[in-house]
Amino acid sequence: MAPELTTHTCTEKVCRFCLLAEGEDDEEDDLDEFVTPCPCRGSAKWVHLGCLTQYVKARGDWHDFKCPTCKQLYEGKALCRLAELSVEHMTAEYGKDALQVAHSLCYMAQAKSQLGDARGSKQLLERSLAIEELHNGPDHVSTAATLAELASAHGKLGQVQRQKELLEKSLAIKEQHFGCGHISTAVTLNNLATVHSERGDILQERELLERSLAIKEEYLGKNHVQNAATLVNLAGVYSELGDASRCRELLRHSLAIEEQHYGIGHVETAITLNNLALACGETGDVEGMRDLLQQSLAIKDQHFGVDHVESCLTLANLGMACSVLGDAQLARDYCTRSLEACDCQGRHNSRRRGVVLLRASAVHCALGEASVAEAFTTQALNVLREVLGPAAGSRVLGMEKTRTSRIWSAAGHANVAQWLAMCVTTGYSAKKGDPVAQPSSL
Q1: Which runs of E-coded beta strand occur in 13-122?
Q2: Number of domains within the chain
Q3: Residue numbers in the chain where pLDDT is lower than 70
Q4: CA distances from 293 to 274, 321, 423 (A)
Q5: What is the phi/psi pair of residue 335, to 5°?
Q6: Same-domain check for residues 293 and 266
């Protein structure tokens, strides 16, 4: 009689190396944990952490952490474990101050960052940078990448000034080595622009993004997909500067690039469609705004599921568009759905929820429901201040007030814009202990 074969369902976790399913191994320790170390899917998705470790040990290359199937770098817990072993191996073979150890430390820092340990990542990168500078000097081109990674770690810890200093040093080294217009400087320029955005220096952010875009267009061509993100960021800058027409032009260019590269209706186009819709609203094209938002929502619903948290801002924006166009019931429905989407993952306080509340408050104000509008505004102020802190919260509120007010004013609802501006201003005063004037009903 033939032996009975073990079969596994498609939903079981089966290790791609030993082919054992979850629960079939008698021994249980950390190395028997199942992980998904790379983008591989299907039968190659899962692996025991211990089996992956043994595979890398047998291969013997302690700086090659790419999956042999999908060719992508391992990530998360798997990369962290492998990088830890790499540090131990390289230290034992070459000494603690060897460049090989610095390389391993960078892998480990990357894994720590992916796992949300920004402080641990920073400490590892500082060790790696010290080794690199010991061997090559403080201004060697080999240190530029580590400086940029270390800057990112400081940024995640809220240390924006230190992040700025490290990025400026990385950029100076790259420009000295490669030249000011070299493609290798473009990413650093983008990252430095983000820092200036956090600091509220919008003009410096614009200059850096335009430099980055010019370099990418020269090296890659005007319609290369790598230009799309820079175009979107630059469009946001022009929106903040009040140039909605230039903002719309840049977003249309970005959308054309994305649709050509990914295809019409791809999820990568959804954010650009949403942003382009807002730019249309700022120039008074509310019907165009609504149509683009409906396209964006349809894509997100298809990709994430109906009323997913990723759709909350698009839903709130549709509430604004429908309110301006006179469809009161649909405006209320979209606002309700947007708030429910914010809460669907149990996160009741987030930046997105604060922005959604503020946009919903303006909708209810326009519908003559002043008490609801006032309650939403108060919640928005509290959420953004709690999540972002006083300085960043105030800046986000200011940006949101300006952009949303432009949409209402362009559509002929200046009274809603005035009400929103007063609510935000009096909200600041309330936090400082000043008397608060009650917003007037419309």
Answers
A1: 34-35, 47-48
A2: 3
A3: 1-11, 24-31, 345-348, 426-442
A4: 6, 9, 26
A5: -65, -40
A6: yes
Q: What CATH number has the domain bearing residue 195?
A: 1.25.40.10
The DSSP output letter for 346 is S
Residue 217 and residue 168 share a domain:
yes
pLDDT digits (tens, 9 = 90+) for 237-255: 999 898 999 999 999 999 9
CA distance 84 to 68: 20
Helix ranges (DSSP H) in 263-389: 270-282, 286-304, 312-324, 328-342, 351-366, 370-388
Extract the tokens encoding 359. 């946009």
End-to-end CA distance of the chain: 85
Please enumerate in sequence order all residues whose Cβ is within 8 A of that of 411, keeping only pairs 6 or more positions apart, or say none.
Answer: 281, 284, 286, 324
User: d(Cα 89, Cα 83) in Å, to the nearest integer?
Assistant: 10
User: Residue type for 389, please?
Assistant: G
Question: What is the C-alpha to C-alpha distance for residues 58 and 43, in angstroms, rounded to an integer?
Answer: 22
| Contacts within 8 Å (CB) and 24+ apart, 173-182 | 173/139, 173/140, 173/141, 173/143, 173/144, 173/147, 174/141, 174/144, 176/139, 177/141, 177/144, 178/141, 181/214, 181/215, 181/218, 182/215
| pTM of the complete model | 0.74
* Statement to judge: residues 228 and 162 lie in one domain: no
Structure tokens belonging to residue 369? 């429901």
Q: Which domain holds residue 438?
A: 343-406+417-442
